[in-house]
Amino acid sequence: MGMKSNESVDLFSVYLTGIPGLEAQHVWLSIPFFTMYIVAIVGNSLIMAAVQADSALHEPMYLFLSMLAITEVGVSVSTLPTVMGILWFDARRVNFDGCLAQMFFIHTFSGMESGVLLAMSYDRFVAIYNPLRYTAILTLPRIISMGAGITLKSVALMAPLPVLLRQLPYCHINILSHSYCLHSDLIQLPCADTKLNSLLGLSIVLATFGLDSLLIVVSYALILYTVLGIASGEGRKKALNTCVSHICAVLVYYVPMIGVSVMHRVAKHASPMAHTLMSSIYLFVPPVLNPIIYSIKTRPIRQGIVSLFCKKESV
User: Fold this and answer.
1) What is the distance between the alpha carbons of residues 181 and 83, in angstroms, rounded to a whole number?
2) Which contiguous run of DSSP H or E holds residue 93?
3) How does DSSP classify residue 95?
4) What is the pLDDT of residues 185-235, one digit of tens each?
5) Which of 50, 126, 133, 72 is CA-nearest to residue 300?
């Protein structure tokens, strides 16, 4: 199943792994996985539709939430073909170029998600620190520029990964340990030195997730400092309540990511099922939980989604 160094990379295929030890139950496992995909795609699409349809939701907070929903739909759609292909049809073979494309989109949308969470923390800081100039600071053109910057940064950082991987010779057994293609998996396959690829991957992680998480912590330190300066206890509570949904989204995103990183470095000899489970939680849980969190905790979003169905019924 390997590819010699003088073979064309176009003829190379990789083989994905399902859920180790539960191969016989793949058809049954497809039910919860497909349900999660439906919840993630439909839930985030409803948030985008509600924000687009209701002019009252054309505020910075909800526009950033719509951006977050776009990235989460992107992550879900990127993994869906191979995950459900394995669970439904045992389709494990993927063309190498197709695998590189999937890897690029997964990492790009994940990086964009991290950037949007950072932008949302800045949004909350401006709303609490300077509420009277909130909409004057976060104007629509500025929000669009931030969204474009987040997208361009993620695309520019992730684009070299598939390009460099495609230049390497492959002669190892080409079996990946997940149901989708990740950079950490693919750099194990070449029979050449991959130090440059590993160093680039680490640099990208630090420049995106590391820097974003650090700036989110700084933002919340400033938010807490500002909130403590509010004289009224009721005012402090009200200010903090506006951050609850975003804090939940940050935790839902970064806690599984940290868990995956720790497991890859500290628990390398853990069972393959444990690694698969942690990676699945990292990729599947945020897109599923975030629309639920924002629908429950954010009343205008809940009302906007309800009004979508009311309009359809009236038509």
Assistant:
1) 10
2) strand 93-95
3) E
4) 899 899 888 999 999 999 999 999 999 999 999 999 999 999 999 988 899
5) 50
Residue 132 tokens read as 């009277």
DSSP string of 123-189, one letter each residue: HHHHHHH-GGGHHHHS-HHHHHHHHHHHHHHHHHHHTHHHHHHHTS-B-S--B-SSSS--HHHHTTS
Please identify which residue in the block is written with the tokens 């058809």.
27
The answer to whether residues 301 and 62 touch, using CB atoms and an 8 Å cutoff, is yes
Which tokens hold the place of 262? 């720790």
Q: What percent of the chain has pLDDT over 70?
A: 92
Give the burial class of 13: count Cβ atoms within 10 A of its Cβ; 0-12 exposed, 13-18 middle, 19 or more buried: middle
SS (H, E, C) 3-71: CCCCCCHHHCEEECCCCCCCHHHHHHHHHHHHHHHHHHHHHHHHHHHHHHHCHHHCCHHHHHHHHHHHH
Cβ-in-10-Å burial (0-12, 13-18, 19+) of 209 comes to: buried
Pick the closest to residue 114 from 259, 254, 242, 222 (CA basis): 254
Q: How far apart are CA 116 and CA 164, in angstroms?
A: 27
Token pair of 116 as six digits? 């949007």
Cα distance between residue 46 and residue 302, in whole Å: 10
Bridge partner residues of 94 (DSSP): 14
* Residue whose C-alpha is closest to residue 246's, from 282, 219, 274, 283: 219
Size of the chain, expressed as the number of residues it contains: 315
| Residues contacting residue 109 through CB under 8 Å, at least 6 positions apart | 71, 72, 74, 75, 78, 154
